[in-house]
Amino acid sequence: MQVYGRSYSWSMASLIFESDFVLRPVILASLLTTGSSALGDELLTNNTAIELSFEWSQAPDGWVYPMAVQVPETDPPAGGWPVCILLHGNGGNGQALLGPFSDVLDCHALVAPTGWANSWNLCAESSNAPDIEMLSALIERLQSFDNVHPDRISLLGVSNGAGLVNRALLEIGLSGVDRHCAIVTQLSEAQFHSGESFGPDGETNDSAPFCGYTLPCSPVTGRRYLSICNENDPIIPYGGGGSPVGMTFLPAQAATWEVARMQGYIGEQITGPGEYLGENVWSYVYLDGQVVHLRGFEGHGLNSTQREAITEFFGGCDWDGPPPGQCDGDVTGDSYVGVEDILLVLESWGNTGAGVGDANGDGQINVDDLLLVIAHFGQACP
């Protein structure tokens, strides 16, 4: 596993990270689950316990991230449930997000961790926890469940949680991560400055230049991104600048344009009023909908039009083909159809509902998938 250039390894029973992190933490994660079927399949259910225990300066004896889980009661779609990881705002908790977003993402399994001191590690917050490492471990753990679609793992965050979603967009390069939704918090100048994106090189520190974000990142392509910000937000300035949370932000529209450029957009920033969606909400769309910004007037919250846009952006339960930046036959998600794609199909041969290696998205891995990969062999995705 790689997180902005660092390599990590993990097993089912334990997870050990060794990095160049200034604290050089050894992070142990015990992953306990329930809900296995009589046939031995490991299923994600409402009763599944996922324990990720980490050590760092604030928790030298280890601390377990509380994890709330909600899975729809119906049978999963072909390929497994899409999963959305929900990230709360400062002072909130994961459990409290399940209700508000269960109707918005009604055909998704929802997993909502709670951060140390009920916050996420961005700059001046109470937490210095290794939240990016936690998310990386959680993503790989979710992909191991038999009723989860391993290529449809998404992240949605509100306020402080949206800041962590933006960190994940820049810093986590794991395959299978599909969509990122950042609500009422855009990229900060710490995360993007001097024309480049950065992650923290050690503990974040609000007294250090750019809060200690000095480690260059190389964001992966093929990710969908939805930014929702409001012009009358009293906490995060829509037009950019300093804020009560102790960070300086890019203008919301410019921040989304920079994300679009990271994803391959080569045009100028979209300006003007945008496309009116109703209820004082306007949209700015890049790359045929891969990257979208919504401008509204709902303070530090959401209205019904913005909530409906989230539902549309995340899509339904049925797998609808590869995400933008990933083309037909590219089952590895590296934006190129080659030998590794053929090998992945062969390794997964005969599986049903597994997702990995399912080139045509029909829930079965067979000769049709192999033929699709061969038909596009040598193709580089746009």
Radius of gyration: 20 Å
DSSP strand count: 20
Summarize the biggest pleated sheet: 9 strands, mixed
Low-confidence stretches: 1-40
Helix content: 10-25%
Q: Spell out the helices and strands N to C.
A: EEEEEEEEHEHEHEEEEEEEHEEEHHH
Report on the structure:
The protein is α/β, with parallel strands linked by helices and 382 residues long. The chain has two domains: 2-314, 3-Layer(aba) Sandwich (Rossmann fold), CATH 3.40.50; 326-382, Type 1 dockerin domain. The chain contains seven helices and 20 strands. The strands form six sheets. A nine-stranded mixed beta sheet has the order 7-9-8-10-11-15-20-19-18, with helices on both faces. Strands 12-13-14 form a three-stranded antiparallel beta sheet, with helices on one face. The protein has a two-stranded antiparallel ribbon with strand order 1-2. Helix 6 runs antiparallel to helix 7 (367-375). The longest helix is centred in the middle third of the chain and has 12 residues, at 131-142.
